[in-house]
Amino acid sequence: MIKPDRTIYYLSLQSMPFVRPNFSEMLQALDFIIKHAYPARGEYAGAV
Length: 48
Known about the structure:
The radius of gyration is 13 Å and the shape is globular. The chain has one helix spanning about 25-35. By secondary structure, the protein is mostly helical. It is built from 1 helix and no strands. The longest helix is centred in the middle third of the chain and has 14 residues, at about 25-35. It has one domain. The N and C termini lie far apart (about 25 Å).
């Protein structure tokens, strides 16, 4: 998934079909992420 500023929010590479996210659950997660401006894991937006 690419954010509007063209940075990567989520990336998954795999060669097996196991543990792929359910599409409807992924859409629900995206709705939550957008509604709450939820940051990506490890993203830091504070002062440096």
